[in-house]
Amino acid sequence: MIVAVTLAVAVRRSNDLLIRHAAVERERGNLARYFSPNVVEELSGHDEPLKQVRTQNVAVLFVDIVGFTAFADARTPDEVVRTLREFHALMEQEVFRHSGTLDKYLGDGLMATFGTPFVGKADAINALRCAQAMMSAADRWNNQRKAAGETPIRVSFGLHYGPVVLGDIGLTCLEFAVIGSTVNAASRLEALTRALDCALVASDDLVRQARTELDSAEAVFRPLMAQAPQTIRGLEQPIAVWTQARAEG
Fold first, then answer.
1. Global pTM?
2. Is 133 helix (H, G, I), strand (E, B) or coil?
3. 188-207 residue pLDDT tens
4. How far apart are CA 32 and CA 119, in angstroms?
5. Which domains does the chain have, with CATH numbers?
6. pLDDT score of 166
């Protein structure tokens, strides 16, 4: 009887341990969908930073495929989805490689943040480097598409740095959200690439912050060109911006 009870208790404890382990691994898997590996490691044992609603400075990056609606209308659903999967995989890889957070997919684009959930010492420069790495990845992808007889994809980028509100929103379905005028401005800077005929538009706020994080003589700043201040809907005053041209060809 004693042996049977002991075995039963041991089995139950083992099952409880397996269930807890599975729950932890499931939670780590969920976190890994949004955060870079180093952030997942820290959050997996302590999720309080996601629950605390607060304001902090963050770099925000918007990425979008230009003219994707027309592209999709001329292709089969399978080809459209395959193209998006390839594109998102390339962009997601660079977000995590540069210590960013994948905030959300936006159909044919995405939003990423740098400095969430934890403020870092290189958030602005990481965002700028990420965008430039994405541009290079898109160029390589387009070379492959051309070689396969497929239409090249034009990608645009918008970057801004400033205060945001972040924390869990929702009731039964929680989402870690980053909201505020900084986010809206980053999205509108991305849209400004059409008018300025360039691949990337970055606010002077982001570039100045990046320069405080890294020597301004570094190569990352060389492709940037200063532009006249631009009026951005939602911001009270026009803001100075920097652009980076598309690769030739």
1. 0.83
2. helix
3. 999 999 999 999 999 999 99
4. 18
5. 48-244 (3.30.70.1230)
6. 86
